[in-house]
Amino acid sequence: MEIEAPFKEIIEEIKEFGGEAVKYCYQCGKCDTVCPWNKVTNFSVRRLIREAAFGFPEIDREEVWRCTTCGRCVEVCPREVRQVEDMVAMRRIAVGYGVSPSFLRMVRSATAGLAAEGNPFVEDRAKRADWAKESDVQTFTEEMEILYFPGCFPSYDARLQNVARATANVLNKAGVEFGILGSEESCCGESIRKVGNEDLFKTLAKDNIKTFIENGVKKILVSSPHCYHTFKNEYPEFMVHFDVVHITQYLLELLNEGRLQIGKEYTKKVAYHDPCYLGRHNNVYDEPREVLKKIPGLELRELYESRENSLCCGMGGGRIWIDTDMEERFSNIRIEDAVELGVEVLVTACPYCIDALEDSRLGLNYEDTIQVLDITEVLQEVI
Ligand code: SF4
Ligand code: SF4
Hints:
alpha/beta, 3 domains, 4-stranded parallel β-sheet
């Protein structure tokens, strides 16, 4: 299907949807030199920006859905073109025109699940707290210190449920009074917004905000940097401000206050992978490293591209719902880098990163060479 639209109309729409900055681009190409796609294939965000500035007639191309919103190009752009917002603006236009090519098959299914059950897996909303059945986890009440919001993957995905359970174990060990909202929790809406479905994002955000207010929530602890970014930086668009803390920040707080004690050694070589939405988008680089450095015996090594230059896992920007050919996965490069660095454990703090890195680890036959763990899974072994 080819979508043709009047150039002027598209230019106006790009502006309306937040992509006005495309006009500042002077085509230096710095964005393309850092974009991770160019490690695995040819992709030019510079060219897309240029086309957008001139009216962008074809919005059904796969390229429009490539950007993982990793933010690396944003850091080097001398003209503040705000490429992430531009890419999302194009997708919003495509959604507005009803564009839905075959490569968006999983996005369609995630959309249906989010609209019906508040999760992208089309799983029963009532099962959202099943991960906690055998753990010591209460329903949140206003008197509690903090709400733990695990998010969709740690609630439903078998691998990531271990992260939710590890988090609960660590919090219990530290004596934190916390609770969850279970079936009252909905997806934060981050990934569906990034693929251009603004209406569904607003519905999910309003549902969560209403639930938080009705339950007297003030402080929210999250496992996912995507939930963190959305609650902290995007929900204020609805005139609400919650105190949001990512688990890496909270763990450091608990350790520094002496509420959490490390009692065992962890004699392994470890590297930390910075998730884009924790690092580049929110400047949380030091806290996870500080936590890991407090563990006796643990040898922390730095990956080739880390901190501000961290390599994206490939799953942001809604790419979690779009198939990526095995040979084009950034997470493969990340796993190869970690193996070459000689580490036994690649630690991270994002459900999307864990999903991608685990897939690559198994796909590349490194099952016996390296582990991929969430930071809470390491902590639970040493407390
Ligand atoms: S880095 Fe910025 S100014 Fe340079 S080509 Fe990319 S978007 Fe345009
Ligand atoms: S945000 Fe990341 S994936 Fe998207 S165009 Fe920029 S560098 Fe490439």
